[in-house]
């Protein structure tokens, strides 16, 4: 049997780091991703390396019934998660007036609808057993709405509010709820050479995916309400809580932002 952790977006980035760290600690894994080949390859590697059981499911979590489908699958597989990590995410750049409506539907479903349903389905079971952990991966943008990523920041802001509410609801039921707010993470999203990456990591400006996962899991097992990994994240959040809205207006003059605003290629 053993203990099970359910991770969405498990095959890459922070999700893959969550998977590795939990496998190393002896947790069996139910790994969900829309990247079937990567997901199953990582699951097989973790089984071989750590002697745990890892089951993988390829699923588009932006679908309206994705949470129900995932819950049916874990039931069929006799997987009873004591940890739920809602990590799957997507980026959407651009001004709202030029955004693809289908992409807007997808980001709202992925960051809001599916995580809410997953917490409803698995959280109820955890509460009935009197034990469990839920980790919601939000973003520092939940604290600092930023031009050209309005939908991303707003949906991550939803997780901020939802996670806090759920933490209150689950406090007396043996279920810990933690919301994680990473800032810059060293992933292929940033087009930087290795020397610059090492320098940014050395000064704490950018964290590795593994460091974010380590801090997030530490906060989760300590039943902390939220986790702001890294000194820069904490500093930026403190500043954002004090800044007036007009303080972000200079951002609109940044060349890259101006190009996005004007839809230049």
Task: Give the oligomeric state of the chains in this entry, treating copies of one chain as homo and distinct chains as hetero.
Answer: single chain
What is the spatial order of strands in the main beta sheet?
Answer: 3-2-1-4-5-6-9
Strand percentage, roughly?
15-25%
Question: How does the helix and strand content classify structurally?
Answer: alpha/beta
| Separation, N- and C-terminal Cα atoms | 53 Å
Can you describe what's shown?
This protein has 265 residues and is α/β, with parallel strands linked by helices. It contains nine helices and nine strands. It has a seven-stranded parallel sheet with strand order 3-2-1-4-5-6-9, sandwiched between helices. Strands 7-8 form a two-stranded parallel ribbon. Helix 2 (36-50) links the parallel strand 2 and strand 3 (54-58).
What's the gist of this structure?
Helices cover 49% and strands 15% of the residues.
Task: Give the topology, please.
Layout: E1 4-8, H1 13-24, E2 28-33, H2 36-50, E3 54-58, H3 66-76, E4 81-86, H4 101-129, E5 132-137, H5 150-170, E6 175-180, E7 185-186, H6 194-202, E8 207-208, H7 209-221, E9 226-227, H8 231-242, H9 255-261
Parallel strand pairs: 1-2, 1-4, 2-3, 4-5, 5-6, 6-9, 7-8
Helix pairs in contact: 1-2, 1-7, 3-4, 4-5
